[in-house]
Amino acid sequence: MMREQVLGIDIGGTNTKFGIVNKRGEILVSGGMATTGHNTPAEFVAALKSELGPLLQNHHISGVGIGAPNGNYYTGEIKFAPNLPWHGVIPMAALMQEALGVKTALTNDANAAAIGEMTYGAAKGMKDFILVTLGTGLGSGFVANGQLIYGSDGFAGELGHVIAVRDGRMCGCGRKGCLETYASATGIVRSAKEWLLASDNKSVLRHQQEITSESIHAAAMEGDNMALDLFAYTGKILGQTLADAIAITSPEAIIFFGGLANAGELLFSHVQRHMEENLLNIYQNKVSLIMSALPGSDAAILGASALAW
Amino acid sequence: MMREQVLGIDIGGTNTKFGIVNKRGEILVSGGMATTGHNTPAEFVAALKSELGPLLQNHHISGVGIGAPNGNYYTGEIKFAPNLPWHGVIPMAALMQEALGVKTALTNDANAAAIGEMTYGAAKGMKDFILVTLGTGLGSGFVANGQLIYGSDGFAGELGHVIAVRDGRMCGCGRKGCLETYASATGIVRSAKEWLLASDNKSVLRHQQEITSESIHAAAMEGDNMALDLFAYTGKILGQTLADAIAITSPEAIIFFGGLANAGELLFSHVQRHMEENLLNIYQNKVSLIMSALPGSDAAILGASALAW
Fold it and tell me: What is the pTM of this model?
């Protein structure tokens, strides 16, 4: 029994969370600390080791899994993550493995979430599915033949940077029309601001100091037409692009995770309709759209821990 | 040694070819017969068994692989193939296995070609690549983690039906803008006919009774500007769409096969340029575009045989 525990670590831009997890996906004990305030990755790892001390005295862990932005499974490195306090290439898996003396694997957040769903969540028993995180950006993990697709270099699964609208919106990556500029919390806010400027249609959004995906959600729940149309528009672009991804890997399900996914039917009724309308006939009425089964606040720890098995 | 031989069968709309192949990808003996002229699949299989008789007396085969249009690996069935003489669902792998008494696997032509390249050809040793056949249509096989992606239902890998141009050309599948309506032998001919109608630019194509991808190739080799532009246009659309597919599986190479691929640099200089221009930076200058290493006339037999190992 004691051997069947692993440590999951989720490194975020602001906070780092960790937990000891068993095979059933139960978090036995958890904690956290600030990611910021450490001058170097080595100092961060030393501080984390000290935080982990009590947990590791009481639990024998057989592996460590880390989820981190821009994490690469093959190299164990975090590469040029714009939202972390340290820049360049950070050999995070190696640093942690040296500090803790336990085999450590690392990947990016969306891949960790996909493995988490497969290990403990909505994708248990599935061999072919896509996980999509709808947060600030749009992340994705593709699973085929029961294995995560890392690709030749560990960077596969960037659905957020598939071109959804040719010559569309400018993306942070330097290109135009990437899916995540439309289908993400940031994307729907961007749509709202564009629409408010382009028309004088009435909307409660016009009177908000700061429009967020949550405030658009709230407005839609109150029947605000523009807010409802924003979800329809976002769902249309997401559904169209998913139809193309399905033609490549033919998944049995697409699992959604992240803040914007909380909009539920407001968004996914449109995703479903436009996905089906744009699917090649052999794929129609086969692909389920389902919500993550990982408990929201713990999902990142669970996803990271799943890597360690 | 005797055990290390398999039978590859390529079922085409007009002809069926077969050959006994060894581990090195050498065709020891081959033959063929008409696909047409048999009232039922069972009669076809009986005729094929009789043709194969002499080969199977002299060679002990350990498996049979079949490549066929609309072939499904999971079920061993050919489903609703528009170009075969028999319609509906044909349990071809089961029929053949019963007739020959040897374990038989079946998949579609493009998947067979991908496995052929991995077993004997340009993808030997590769774990992540895409095979694209540029023939009458555009077929594809995606390999990740060293395995072909069949998807949840055996129908993965339909890059030809990814929407390359939103609301673009009508496709035989009933939707608009599918990649294969542009990037295929049929697609480039369609572009030529559209352009000839839309302008009065001079071109030798204007005086051809029947425009084919080969006649466009020949015209381009003679410096005909419209023919050169047709390859540039076809290459642009193919390159853009490949950039999106790369963001999903991050292959180390894309391998091209089929008639239109013979155009070589006339086409692929443009594919390469537009692919790179449209790639997310992390994928740039990593993906090789390479031509099939399987000998043209035997490739279909080799691809089918590779399934049998």
Answer: 0.94
